[in-house]
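Regression test case RT-17, inverse folding.

Input:
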């Protein structure tokens, strides 16, 4: 029995190493202090602040986005923030294959009203976020929800014919002119952790 326990533990360790090796993000667990290496952000000045956050109860490290300001123009409040996970040095995204399905898994927690997952593609190597950019649908069986407890989000996306690089976008959006219940507030936050993006090698399996 003792030998079985040792073998089972060893197998779990090997599986964990294998999964991490497949991950196209090197710091998807946000254990490395230099989280900016793979992170790019886009929002108006003063709207958001990204940081490495440590949960108090279990010392778990994760990515945190705080809402610092909600712009208002002509009486309309608009919330926009985009985080792109995936970069190599100054080059945006991680290398991917064209016409290929990629599995995604991540965990979200926080007080923001909503968040959306935006797989982001580029058809070339670039340091400019908007140069050759396109978005594809994040396919998932369940709606992306943000709650006070961690929620696991799983799904997949498919690259285009000419895709060279990709990143996983996490978008926050709101418009008081278009939303009856505009509930974005300064002080709200979003936590992100355990982000995994990997090629789907077994197309017969439905689960990401």
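Golden output:
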């Amino acid at each position: 029995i003792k030998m079985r326990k040792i073998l089972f533990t060893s197998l779990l360790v090997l599986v964990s190493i294998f999964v991490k090796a497949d991950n196209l993000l090197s710091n998807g667990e946000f254990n490395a202090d230099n989280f900016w290496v793979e992170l790019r952000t886009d929002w108006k000045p003063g709207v958001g602040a990204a940081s490495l956050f440590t949960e108090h109860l279990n010392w778990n490290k994760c990515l945190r986005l705080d809402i610092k300001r909600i712009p208002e123009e002509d009486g309309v409040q608009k919330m926009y923030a985009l985080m792109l996970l995936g970069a190599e040095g100054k080059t945006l995204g991680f290398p991917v294959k064209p016409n290929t399905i990629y599995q995604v898994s991540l965990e979200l927690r926080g007080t923001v009203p909503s968040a959306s997952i935006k797989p982001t593609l580029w058809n070339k190597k670039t340091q400019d976020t908007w140069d050759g950019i396109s978005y594809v649908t994040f396919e998932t069986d369940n709606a992306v929800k943000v709650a006070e407890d961690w929620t696991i989000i799983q799904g997949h996306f498919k690259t285009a014919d000419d895709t060279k690089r990709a990143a996983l976008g996490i978008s926050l959006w709101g418009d008081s002119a278009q939303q009856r219940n505009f509930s974005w507030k300064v002080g709200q936050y979003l936590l992100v952790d355990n982000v995994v993006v990997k090629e789907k090698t077994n197309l017969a399996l439905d689960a990401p």
